[in-house]
Amino acid sequence: MAKKYYVVWEGNNVGVFDSWPKCQAQIKGYPNAKYKSFKTKEAAVAAYHGNFSDFIGTSAKKKKPVISESARANIVWKSIAVDAACSGNPGDLEYRGVDTKTADEIFRIGVFKKGTNNVGEFLALVHGLAYLQKIKAFDMPIYSDSRTAMAWVRNKKVKTSLKRSKVNEELFQLIERGEKWLKANTYKNPILKWETKAWGEIPADFGRK
């Protein structure tokens, strides 16, 4: 039997998986999971970076991909990408970082109560920078699709309207740790803006839109 690769856009964990058992573990018990098999890893990775609606259901036959490979030629694939997901605003928050080329998950943190997406994006960037320092990848770029989070990192200060409470105290402590890390450390890693309109969803996207 020919090998297949499986994309999970919505599930217990999202990404590209190289076997049905691994895929099945991500969709088991997850209501309305969104997934599909592909014949090659390249096709699966490209699909994961795109929009699941282009590949699932009857609309898949009618729609044409709007993201071209030529548009994605400017992506620095030897990099990591980060993103956050928040159920509500504020709501349950988590963030993660992945290998930009393969979408393999590097870290995933959460869930935190009463957070916002921008806060998660900031924490993901700081976590990513600290990770790159740890593995001595001092020049490797890191992608984010949040200009707000990029500005907060650049200014070493989070300017959020989120109110601090007992429920999200842990989250605010992480914010303070992130600001402290930025002030205490220097880094050369370029923080690059992920151009969603030209390239599709950032590889670290949680697929919950």
What is the fold's blueprint, element by element?
Layout: E1 5-10, E2 15-17, H1 20-27, E3 34-38, H2 41-49, H3 59-62, E4 80-88, E5 91-99, E6 105-115, H4 117-134, E7 142-144, H5 147-155, H6 169-184, E8 191-193, H7 196-199
Helix pairs in contact: 4-5, 4-6
Element string (H = helix, E = strand):
EEHEHHEEEHEHHEH
Euclidean distance between termini CA atoms:
34 Å
Q: What is the number of strand segments?
A: 8
Helical content (DSSP H or I, runs of 4+): 25-40%
Largest sheet: 5 strands, mixed
What would you call the structural class? alpha/beta
User: How are the strands of the biggest sheet laid out side by side?
Assistant: 6-5-4-7-8
Instruction: Tell me what portion of residues adopts beta-strand conformation.
Output: 15-25%
Using the CA coordinates, give the radius of gyration: 18 Å
- Poorly predicted regions are 58-65
Q: Describe the global form.
A: globular
Mean pLDDT metric: 88
Short note summarizing the structure:
The protein has 209 residues and is of the alpha/beta class. 33% of the residues lie in helices and 23% in strands.
What does this protein structure show overall?
With 209 residues, the chain is α/β, with parallel strands linked by helices. The chain has 7 helices and 8 strands, in the order E-E-H-E-H-H-E-E-E-H-E-H-H-E-H. The strands form 2 sheets. It has a 5-stranded mixed beta sheet with strand order 6-5-4-7-8, covered by helices on one side. The chain is globular, with a radius of gyration of 18 Å. It starts with a strand and ends in a 10-residue tail after the last helix. Residues 58-65 have low confidence and may be disordered.
